[in-house]
Structures are given as C-alpha cells and as structure tokens.
Amino acid sequence: MYPVMLQIANKPVVVVGGGDVAERKVVGLLEANAAVTVVSPAVTKALKELAENGKIHWKEKLFSADDIDGAFLVIAATNDRHVNETVAQVAKPHQLINIVDDPERSNFHVPSVVRRGKLTISVSTNGASPTLAKQIRNEIANIYDEEYERYVDFLLACRRYILQHIDDASIRRSIFQTIATESFRKNGTWEEQLRELIARYKKQP
Predict the structure, then answer these.
(1) Is the CB of residue 28 less than 8 Å from the CB of residue 89?
(2) 31-78 tens-digit pLDDT
(3) What is the pTM (predicted TM-score) of this model?
(4) Taking every annotated instance into account, which residue ranges of this chain make up the domain Siroheme synthase central (predicted)?
C-alpha cells in the first residue's frame, strides 16, 4: 500500500448503498468537498435530508453499471455482497474503488480519520481490522484535541509571514523548528512568542 492524501474537492464520487455505512462514507466525502451521488432505492434519514438540502444527489433506484460512468471514485457500501461484487466488476481500470466488505477487491481503503481543521491524521490496517483502526483513531483524537485546529492555522500564517519577511534560510529553519515544539504550543501566547523569536534572531550577528 502507498499512503496518499487525495484531493477530491468537486470530483464526482458515487456511493452505492443507502444504509448506515454508506452514510458514514458520505459524511467523510462531504468533509473533503466531493460532489457526491448516492445510488440506492432507500436511504437513511440523514442521507435523505442531505439530498433534500442539495448537499448530495440521490438516485432512488437499484444499481446499474452506468451509475458510475464518469465517477472519479466509487464506494460500494450496500449490505448485499452480490451488488457490491457487481460494482467491482463494472468499475473501469482508472477508477478508484472501495468495496466495504471485500478489501481484496478494492484498490484503496478508507482509513479512520481525525480532523482538526487543516490537520488530518489517518489510521489504516489495510482492511485487516477497521475496529482496531477506530480504537487507535480515538486514542489519537484524545491527544490531538480541538486546540490543534487553531494551532495549525497559526503555523500556516507564520510560515507565510516568515517566508515573505525573513531572507536568511537558517533563521527561517530555526523559527520553524521552535514554533512546532510542544513547549511552544503549550505556552499559549503564540503571537507574542513569535515576535520575541523574530526579534532575537534578527539581533544575532
């Protein structure tokens, strides 16, 4: 397996299935701003509301091969292994496909994810044990709490400012290393600490 972060914003994605598993997949895809189509004769209440609010497109029908024409990514998430297998068979070689109940028939796996704004942490067992992946994800989520969303936004703003205003590469590197430390983050006064750092390094001969 080769881990990557996949940019799927506005990409056409098809989820075959309308149950709880499909719902979880759709929620994750929407967080990544994908253009989601759900194919299923029935869907959960939450998926129906998403369709009614224009967040997803719902094809209220049984699956047929042309439902995934043009899809960049396909997820087969029904509780019918025959339907899931049919999706796998009709998918094109260039399409990314995940069969939720058959990792061997998939060419990618969806990891368990912790999101904190721009920070994304993924955990995968390559389909061996989604339960273990979720347990590890929950442990990570307790370590990297909601504060990290603001912290990563701060680091991004710092990086842009430093690259624009500090020419010395060694000074830039030292500041980047310092502001990424746990002691810096826990101090809390990030902007004040940054000003002090910049002033200190600029005074150095």
Answers:
(1) no
(2) 999 999 999 999 999 999 999 999 999 999 999 999 999 999 999 999
(3) 0.78
(4) 116-142
